[in-house]
Each structure stands twice: as structure tokens, then as C-alpha cells.
Design goal:
10 strands, 10-stranded antiparallel beta sheet, signal, Outer membrane protein beta-barrel domain-containing protein, Porin, mainly beta, 7% helix
């Protein structure tokens, strides 16, 4: 499935890059809480941090404040929980394709700009580990973690033009990811607050 996503992205990327105006790379941190709907658990779930990476391009529409962003993403959605004497931890890696629309709110002199964004990510798990006390479980084939995850998101980004050939950005995204291929009774969602730092390279 990952190979299919990658092939599709690079086909789109090859065509769209001819019309794109900016390439970007971003990294940051996810602070994730598991919304685990399971009737027989009384565990106290806690947020845990994970890494985030994104590589993509941005196409600016002529004579508007709107632009389109397409990218490949890597997200870690991690969490901890406890239930009496039992402790739990989850460590998961997801690779996905993200589509978003950005709107330029403000643009100040000296290169400052503020954007709002909304979009969605389609992702699949590449690695997943669960520990219950000292016991280890592989999550890649667990239905609530495997398959296709849909992640709607909204965010705010501030940019600064350092030089003509490069901009830097600082952003925040909020998202709630759902496993759309999970048909089991155990339903899981990832509620994530994401902080981003980016480098942007405008095309001439």
C-alpha cells in the first residue's frame, strides 16, 4: 500500500511541479492523545510526543490569496496509559499523503506573512509497538491501527522571508485521525496538536 501511495504521489508531483511555485520541508513534534472507545477498559490515557516530517510543494493560484499544498508526511502517534498496577505504551509510525488549501490572512512589510490552512491526510502504519508492563505486541496487523487512516486537520502558519531564495515558517496544526478501514468494535482516534518548523524554497 505504501508503494502505491508513493507511486501516485510522484506521478502527481512530476506533473504539478511544472506549475508549482514553492518546495518545502518541515519537521516538528506531535503531542497525541488516544481516543480509545473500548467498553471494558478503565485506563487513564495520557498524551505523548512523537516526531513529524513533511516534504512537499505549494502552488499559488493567480490573483487570489489561496494556494494548494501536496506532500508526503511521516507522523509518530504515541501515547501512554495506566490502569491500577498495569501500564501501557504505544509507539506508532505512519506514512501518508497530505492535501491542503492555504489562505493568506495578512502580509506585513519586511517579509512577514500569516496563513490559515485546512486539509486532510491519508496514511497507513509502517511500524507499531505496544507494551503492557513488560509484554511486547506488534500493532501492524491490529485492525484498529492497520489499514487506512484519515486525518482531517486545520492550522495556522507564520512565515518570514529570510532571503529571496528561502523562507522559514512556524506553524500549529490540530487534527483528529480516524481509521476508516476498521470494522471492529474497538474504535481508535488520534487527537494531535502539532508544532511545525519549515524551510520554503520559492521557484523562479
Amino acid at each position: 500500500m505504501i508503494k502505491k501511495y508513493s507511486t501516485l504521489f510522484f506521478l502527481i508531483f512530476s506533473v504539478s511541479a511544472l506549475f508549482s511555485q514553492e518546495f518545502f520541508i518541515k519537521t516538528g513534534k506531535n503531542n497525541t492523545h488516544y481516543d480509545f472507545q473500548e467498553s471494558n477498559t478503565t485506563a487513564d490515557f495520557r498524551c505523548e510526543s512523537g516526531d513529524f516530517y513533511e516534504l512537499g510543494y505549494q502552488h499559488f493560484f493567480k490573483d487570489t490569496k489561496f494556494s494548494y499544498l501536496g506532500s508526503i508526511t511521516f507522523n509518530q502517534f504515541n501515547a501512554n496509559a495506566s490502569d491500577g498496577a498495569t501500564s501501557y505504551s504505544w509507539r506508532t509510525n505512519y506514512v501518508g499523503l497530505q492535501n491542503a488549501v492555504s489562505y493568506a490572512l495578512f502580509q506585513w512589510e519586511k517579509g512577514f506573512k500569516a496563513n490559515v490552512k485546512a486539509g486532510f491526510n491519508l496514511a497507513t502504519i509502517t511500524k507499531g509497538e505496544q507494551f503492557i508492563n513488560t509484554m511486547y505486541y506488534d500493532l501492524k496487523n491490529q485492525e484498529e491501527f492497520s489499514g487506512l487512516v484519515l486525518q482531517p486537520m486545520v492550522g495556522l502558519e507564520l512565515q518570514y522571508q529570510v532571503i529571496d531564495a528561502m523562507k522559514i515558517s512556524l506553524g500549529y496544526h490540530f487534527s483528529k485521525a480516524f481509521n476508516v478501514s476498521n470494522s471492529s468494535e474497538e474504535q481508535l482516534a488520534f487527537v494531535t496538536h502539532q508544532i511545525q518548523f519549515g524551510l520554503h524554497f520559492p521557484l523562479k
